[in-house]
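Fig. S4 source data, part A: sequence.
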Amino acid sequence: MVRRRLYVEERLSRLAVWSLRTAIFALPVTAIGIALYATETLDFRSAVYTVLAGVGLSVLALLLALAGFVVIWNEGLRGLGRVLGAAALALALLMPTATVAALSVGLPALHDISTDIDDPPVFVTLGAARAREANALAYGGEGAAAGQDDAYPGIKPMELDVPADEIYAALLAMVTRHKWLVVDAVSPRGGLRDGRIEAVARALPFGLRDDIVIRVRRTAEGTRVDMRSVSRNSDRDFGSNARRIDALFSELAEAQGRRRR
């Protein structure tokens, strides 16, 4: 008597297939938006829409993966590896957006931060190098000053008993080391002219551009340093401008062997 074994091939979950396909498609969509903006091929608004499309596809992929997992669990279909892969890829793509959302909790809608809110450092050169749709470089006045004072009371000018020329040289070296794009640099000239450094930095995680101006002013005791950091396109900076100023001033104080005052 010959016994026959019957092998029943388990069906592959269509939800698993489409969840992975959607997640894979979301990857180049998101990457293209970020890459084209970084290379200045795409304007800010178009880049945002492209990245949001990638985020939407990632959310859809995650939902399909969850639905696919339920179906696979209940009906014993194949495709668990695809579901897990889709979920992992979708979560990885959503992580930067989730990070930005978490950073924005409790922070005011500010995009222009200055250590001197009464007489903010002025952009001289960068104004002509920005696109028309960029945020204005004119300071926001009392409203912006009050919002900053409430949110970041520690953002203040830095005073050092060191000659202005030395501080200017140290700051220029730091800006260069951070790979900020220096657009203009004017050294201080006694009490006749303030030193000024204008540069462009990138804010993580999407590489958005922030415009920076540093003012180096001679005082009777030594040097006063003021810094202003402005988000070029977004109407809120998620705290990146204040963190940048605080980090640079802390670095300057450490380089000079002094504590922040």
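Fig. S4 source data, part B ends here. The mean pLDDT is 87.
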